[in-house]
Amino acid sequence: MIRWQPTLPQHYTRMSDAELTEAIAQRRAQLGDKLVILGHHYQQDDVIRFADFTGDSFKLSQLAAEQVRQSGAPYVIFLGVHFMAESADILTPEDTAVILPDLGAGCSMADMADYEQAVTAWEQMHELLEDRGFNGRIIPICYMNSSAAIKAFCAEHGGAVCTSSNCHAIFKWALEGGTQQRAEGEQIKILFLPDQHLGRNTAAAMGYDIEQDMCVYNPRDTDPALIGGCSEQQIERSTFILWRGHCSVHMLFRPEHVDQVRSAWPDATIIVHPECDHAVVKKADMSASTEGIIKALESAPQASRWAIGTEVHLVDRLARAAAERGVTARILSDCQCLCTTMYRIDMPHLLYVLDRLIEGEVVNQIRVDPQVRYWALEAMNRMLAHTGQPPAATPEPAGV
Ligand code: SF4
Q1: HEC string of 320-381?
Q2: CATH number of 10-108+342-368
Q3: Which residue out of 1, 2, 42 has the highest number of ligand 1 atoms within 8 Å of its CB and is therefore the one to mutate?
Q4: Distance between CA atoms of 48 and 347, rounded to whole angstroms?
Q5: What is the pLDDT, as a whole number, of residue 149?
Q6: Is the pTM of this model over 0.85?
Q7: Would you tell me which CATH number, out of the four given (3.40.47.10, 3.40.50.10800, 3.30.70.100, 3.40.50.300), belongs to the domain 250-331?
Q8: Could you tell me if the CB of 145 is within 6 A of ligand 1?
Q9: From the CA of 122, how far away is ligand 1's center (Å)?
Q10: Contact 304 CB / ligand 1 (< 6 Å)
């Protein structure tokens, strides 16, 4: 979904980098403890240097919630994309204002699944399976990179959220019955949204067959003879129904990039994010979440060489830090694998929202509807409970 960001006053776009840097640092100091700035790993260097915390989206929202509770900061600025700011709004107290400096910073993957489409898919699948005497449940699981409405949909229908680090554990939880013990003879199917690749790669690593045990539901396929582009047989036999969504950044890595790196650097370790296509993951040496990639590089032996299949700003930072320890790292492909929507968050937009805060005006606030918030938080808490962590926050009753 394209969200409209009004054009900034010319004053901001005409400032030099040095003027912007100085002004941002000055406003940041002026706001002091009233503000927490979060910077996602994929963010450009120009703005991430102003972040109080850096990390992946869920970790950042948890850190922000903790920090806000300790300091009472009324404002959080998220240098990330829309769904990340929604997660921060869900986890922080109701009176905290979460601000996205450019409202146009969405996530193409999260925008590939909306609530109405999920409801349609749900009804179509249940109608088909009930006609065929299905004895079981479909449990919806969504990736953290989804809208708050999709997270709420999953919780309302007995499912949960997962991250790329715990997707395997959450799939296992669901297949064992999820919120209810699996009954004798009961069949469980997982509807996974919105990233087909994380779903496929995780299920394949669990031993499921990518042809026989999975099918891809395309919400835009309107062929009346099919269900989201799937035949009745495909839906019936699949344990995993994968939503047809993808990350436009990770999809840029191709199997031939792995071949090219192998011929140039035969000794290199190739590590890729599980949002990459299965053919790329299969050819790589390792697949790991963003935090997993960072840890692998941090513990890489001296003189080792690495090729990394993830967003270019993170790879560049990892390569600079690795070089200081005698480790060589590069991006898997020379293509511009950058998250263009996150790239919209630049210094002029950051300064603009800071200036408005100094004037006492909150602009670009991301607010999640109270009922959606309640259920989305429930979806996150189910994930945390199953992975042995305390709840992120207590859901507040919202007329549900
Ligand atoms: S890198 Fe991909 S999944 Fe992450 S915010 Fe950008 S488009 Fe979305």
Answers
A1: HHHHCCCCEEEECCCCCCCCCCHHHCCHHHHHHHHHHHHCCCCCCECCCCHHHHHHHHHHHH
A2: 3.40.50.10800
A3: 42
A4: 10
A5: 98
A6: yes
A7: 3.40.50.10800
A8: yes
A9: 25
A10: no
